[in-house]
Design brief:
Blueprint (H helix, E strand, L loop, with lengths): L1 E6 L9 E6 L8 H9 L3 H8 L9 E4 L11 E5 L8 H18 L3 E4 L11 H16 L19 E6 L5 H26 L7 H14 L3 E5 L1 H7 L2 H7 L7 E7 L11 E6 L1 E5 L19 H16 L4 E11 L11 E3 L5 E3 L7 H11 L7 E6 L3 H7 L4 E5 L2 H14 L3 E4 L16 E2 L7 H10 L7 E5 L5 E2 L9 E2 L4 H12 L3
Parallel strand pairs: 1-6, 2-4, 2-5, 5-6, 9-11, 9-14, 10-11, 13-17, 14-18, 15-16
Antiparallel strand pairs: 3-4, 7-8, 8-11, 12-13, 15-18, 19-20
Helix pairs in contact: 3-4, 4-5, 5-9, 8-10, 9-14, 10-13, 12-14
């Protein structure tokens, strides 16, 4: 998809689809929509007065100009929601709703104003970035394994023209659109990885694709195989890998911004779980929804995408992405409940359920992170079913006992619309991990399961500020929404990019 920022008036643009907007509760059109209303002889005013379009977020209204009233073939009004609730996340959703409608129509060229840079109070750059991100996110479909990769034979959206009448705003708009395209494309790449069938996306294939994309944007990339992991003492990760014929991979991505002294920059390490398929191992999962376990590498995909976006934006921060990847299979050499493994830092862990494999692979990766002496570390994982029960499909759990890091993550959550909910790291629950067989066991039972999982990970986090994001409920979207398609959400890719931007001082 190509983006172009252009000086011009909406009523003069020739295009397949022209997008304007309306706030909920507005009694008359204003701004660009007022110009459209005048060209159409008051049609928009009539629709508003009749109550046929209310401007709710996600709502759209199609208009068909007649008798050459406008050069645009169609006009789409997208709702911005209530003015009091409007923010950059709402602007992104409004753009996504419009893009989704454009895809349904088969429009190949879309012209649009930015949403929220006027009455919405957003800066021009922020509104333009939200527009580009939302357009890409709303237009997304996974079609890689279909013979016909179009939607019912309709062409794909190929060009988006962003219109602005004020020449003084064009440069800020171009910068915002460029940033939004980088972030939106990275998030959609993460969705592609998660949506891929697991026979296509094995650990080695994931590593190949990640390295290819990383090197294309200037990231340093390295992949460790099982022999190298064994030399490092990663017995916990390798314990999970034993059950699969596919070799485990440990991806290391590093963003060193151009034109900056590395020693003067903060270092942030992101650690993403990448189980390319999770059967549960010997503690096998029920068969009914096991197919969704191809999404168990969502944290790794988000981590890779955030590093790719950071490189594309050249954020002045030293960012490291660590992605431990394997399958969790019930093979003849698979790890068993009551086995004991040794993590890279020397701690021994008794295995209670082989379906709690995510914390095992993260433990070794978090120990590896110590070599970078980070200023902050964040792990992200589809970790526990308990998190889904607690927060449902819209919220991810945030476990963090550092006030500054937690605040930055919550701010990134609000900016991106990838919503986090703070959860407790309740220290008394550490006793749930006590065992006579090893230094600790890796699960604490069903009660408070997401909390005890985070407490387990805390044992390997080191002394720097650390946060754990449990995205088990948010990595996969069960149903189509006005803003996105069913399937992988890419949750965390934009959130982590925004976090890195905060450490870089760019937000």
């Amino acid at each position: 998809m190509q983006f172009q920022v252009k000086q011009g008036a909406v009523q003069d643009e020739t295009t397949d689809l022209l997008v304007v907007n309306l706030f909920e509760g507005a009694t008359e059109p204003s701004g660009a929509l007022k110009a459209i209303d005048q060209a159409l002889g008051g049609l928009v005013s009539q629709i508003i007065a009749a109550g046929d379009f209310k401007g709710k977020l996600g709502e759209t209204q199609m208009l068909y100009p007649s008798n050459g009233a406008l050069p645009a073939q169609r006009v789409l009004i997208t709702g911005l929601g209530k003015p009091a609730e409007f923010n950059v996340a709402q602007a992104r959703k409004a753009a996504a709703a419009a893009a989704k409608k454009a895809r349904e129509l088969g429009a190949t060229r879309l012209a649009t104003i930015v949403h929220g840079a006027g009455q919405g109070g957003l800066s021009v750059a922020d509104a333009a970035q939200a527009l580009a991100e939302g357009t890409l996110l709303g237009n997304y479909r996974y079609r890689a394994r279909k013979q016909n990769d179009s939607d019912n034979g309709k062409p794909a959206l190929a060009e988006v023209v962003v219109l602005e009448a004020d020449a003084d705003k064009l440069e800020a708009m171009r910068q915002g659109v460029a940033a939004g395209q980088i972030v939106g494309e990275a998030a959609n790449w993460a969705r592609d990885l998660v949506n891929e069938p697991p026979n296509y996306l094995t650990p080695r294939e994931m590593a190949r694709r990640v390295v290819e994309r990383a090197e294309a944007v200037g990231l340093k990339a390295q992949v460790l195989g099982e022999a190298e992991m064994a030399e490092l003492g990663m017995g916990s990760l390798l314990g999970i890998a034993r059950g699969s014929d596919e070799e485990a991979q440990f991806m290391v991505l590093e963003h060193i911004p151009q034109g900056h002294d590395l020693a003067s920059l903060p270092t942030v390490v992101l650690v993403g779980k990448a189980i390319t398929f999770d059967t549960g191992g010997i503690s096998i999962k029920p068969s009914e929804n096991m197919w969704k376990m191809k999404s168990d590498m969502g944290g790794g995909a988000a981590t890779a995408a955030a590093l790719v976006a950071a490189a594309g934006l050249n954020l002045p921060v030293h960012a490291v992405g660590l992605i431990p990847s394997t399958e969790n299979m019930p093979g003849g050499d698979a790890i068993k409940p009551s086995d004991v493994v040794t993590v890279m830092n020397g701690k021994t862990v008794e295995i209670i359920s082989t379906d709690a494999e995510g914390r095992q692979v993260l433990a070794d990766a978090m120990c590896y992170a110590a070599r970078y002496q980070p200023d902050a570390m964040v792990d992200i994982a589809t970790l526990t079913g308990a998190m889904v029960i607690a927060l449902g499909p819209d919220l991810a759990g945030l476990f963090c006992d550092d006030e500054t890091l937690r605040g930055r993550l919550m701010q990134a959550s609000q900016e991106t619309g990838e919503i986090l909910w703070p959860m407790p790291l309740w220290k008394p629950y550490r006793k749930l991990l006590d065992t006579d067989a090893a230094d600790m066991k890796h699960t604490g039972g069903r009660m408070g399961g997401a909390i005890s999982a985070a407490i387990f990970l805390r044992e390997f986090a080191g002394e720097q500020p650390w946060a754990h994001l449990d995205i088990a409920g948010t990595a996969w979207q069960e149903e189509n929404s006005p803003f996105a398609a069913r399937g992988a959400s890419g949750f965390g890719a934009r959130l982590l990019t925004d976090l890195l931007a905060a450490y870089a001082g760019d937000r």
